[in-house]
Design goal:
Blueprint lengths: L5 H20 L4 H24 L5 H15 L18 H15 L16 H14 L29 H17 L4 H16 L18
Length: 220
């Protein structure tokens, strides 16, 4: 095995994060969750150690930076010195507005509401994140210029047109995420659960109940 680098460790960071998500959504219990969280933390430690070796930052710097960011972005919870506020009067909307305002000030180089949304996110999850950003920026969810002419017309209770191209399929999937989000559902999580049910059925078993089934997706 070659020398470890940030680039060579990316696949393991992603793998451990997805394994943690699977453990949570599959209801595998606290012992397994503890182990998976430890694996994620190991990836943080490794990246911090590599950075320390080249004189950039260390694990303490990572933890300190996280503490400072949480204090800055949550003034409804923390005083500037890090102690807790006596009361928490802010509404969810005010919390989101404050978080966004502080984030924009910190990252003044971001020129658009969509800047900073990772391109490597799974497609359904990225769609949801883009829609979240669009809503908070007052942008339309579906600009007419990017919607292709449909092959059929849907009215009333008629079924949606069957997509004939990947572009049409992409638009159908996008529209489904829009509808799911409007109902407070998480399309990415729902598809992961469907995959687990398919895998269990194909293997002759039964998928464990999804603890998040039917739960609304949290605000971002």
């Amino acid at each position: 095995m070659g020398a470890l680098t940030h680039d060579s460790l990316v696949e393991y960071l992603l793998e451990e994060a997805f394994e943690t998500a699977e453990t949570i959504e599959g209801g595998h219990g606290d012992a397994e969750l503890r182990a998976e969280l430890g694996d994620v933390l190991l990836q943080v430690v490794l990246h911090a150690r590599l950075a320390e070796e080249r004189g950039a930052f260390d694990f303490d710097d990572v933890a300190r930076g996280l503490r400072e960011k949480m204090i800055r972005r949550n003034p409804h919870v923390f005083r500037p010195d890090g102690t807790l506020q006596d009361t928490f009067p802010a509404t969810v909307e005010e919390i989101v507005q404050t978080w966004d305002a502080v984030k924009r000030a910190e990252k003044s180089g971001l020129g658009h509401a969509f800047d900073g949304v990772p391109a490597a996110l799974p497609a359904l999850a990225r769609t949801q994140k883009l829609l979240d950003r669009a809503e908070r920026a007052g942008l339309p969810a579906r600009p007419a210029a990017v919607v292709p002419e449909p092959r059929g017309t849907r009215t009333g209770t008629e079924p949606a047109p069957d997509p004939h191209t990947e572009e049409e399929l992409g638009e159908a999937l996008f529209a489904m995420v829009v509808a799911a989000r409007a109902r407070g559902l998480d399309a990415e999580r729902a598809l992961r659960a469907a995959n687990r049910r398919f895998q269990a059925a194909a293997a002759g078993g039964t998928a464990p109940p999804d603890p998040a089934a039917g739960a609304p997706r949290p605000g971002t």
